[in-house]
Automatic annotation (TrEMBL):
It comes from the Bacteria. One of its GO terms (molecular function) is N-acyltransferase activity. One of its GO terms (biological process) is response to antibiotic. PROSITE patterns: GNAT. Keywords: Antibiotic resistance, Transferase. Residues 8-175 form the N-acetyltransferase domain. Signal peptide: none annotated. InterPro entries: Acyl_CoA_acyltransferase, GNAT_dom. The keyword Transferase applies. This is GNAT family N-acetyltransferase. The keyword Transferase applies.
Amino acid sequence: MIFENGRLAVRVLEERDLKLMTKWLSDNAVLEYYEGRDNPFDEKKAEQVFLEVNDEETKCIVEYMNKPIGYIQFYKVDEKTRMKYGYSDENIYGIDQFIGETDYWGQGIGTLLVKSMTAFLLHNKGAQKVIMDPQTRNERAIRCYEKCGFKKVTKLHAHELHEGIYQDCWLMEYP
C-alpha cells in the first residue's frame, strides 16, 4: 500500500488490474480527456503500457471503500523537463490521474485523491513542488486541482496530441 486516507487507498498496480484498466480506457467518457476516444485500450495494450518496467513512474490503482475506481501515477521530474519548464534543481514530482468508474465522478473523490497524493509526495518523497499538465479544455479537472491548491503557471501551447489535434495544456503546480 502506498497510502490510505480514510476510505481512500492507493496501491501499486498489479497484473490482476489489467482488466480494469482495459475497461476504463475503452470508456468514451474517460477517453475524452485521458488518452483519447481514438485510442481505446485492449488487454494487450494495457499490459504494454502499464506493466512495462519503468523505474521513473510509480503506477497505482485508486481504491475507494475497498473498490478499485481509478488510476494515478507519480514520478520524479527529470532534469530536461525541469529546465524546459524553467525550474532549477528542485525536487519536483509530477502526477497524472483519472477516476475510471464514472459513477464516482462529482463526489469529491478526485479532490481527496489529489490532495492525498500531493501530501504523500511532499512528506514522504521530499517533493518541493508537484506539477501536472491538464488540457485547458478539461475544466472539471482544473477546478478540482485549483481546489487542491494548484495554480496555473504557464499555458503550454500545442502540448499534447489528443484525438488527432494538438491540445493546449496548463502547467499547474503546488504550492
